[in-house]
Amino acid sequence: MSLTEHLAASLENLYNGQPWIDVTFYPHLSRIDAQQAVKTFGESNNIWEIVNHIIFWHQRAQRFMHNEAPEQDGDLPDFYMPENHGEENWQATIHRLAHSFEQIAATIRKFPEKELFDTFPGTEHIAIYYLQGLAEHDAYHLGQIVLLHKYA
What we know:
mainly alpha; 6 helices
């Protein structure tokens, strides 16, 4: 298995596979409704904001891989919270997250492995820093989602 295949599979497993941590996004998010997704505790972000943050970073990494500007007109801001907190909009956000995982995994699979240790243009870090970091980042936020849901 190539390193890019491993990185892509790691992200797919976090979404709905069998990761080493034995926790995945899909089953947890499918049990969360819009009302639970907006609940905060103290100064915490809510689940909805965290999901949008994950989508934000998937998109950003994809743009790095395509040597595009990381932020573009029309992008949702990091930790975006929509004004419409309805169930239909929450389900659309969950769908966007699933699509985000599919897209980032596909982009990583196509990324030239020989470029994994090259610095992404416009950044101070090599490609693998971001691509491996996505799995670490997503696992961290999955833990937050699980805890926020537990206490919601």
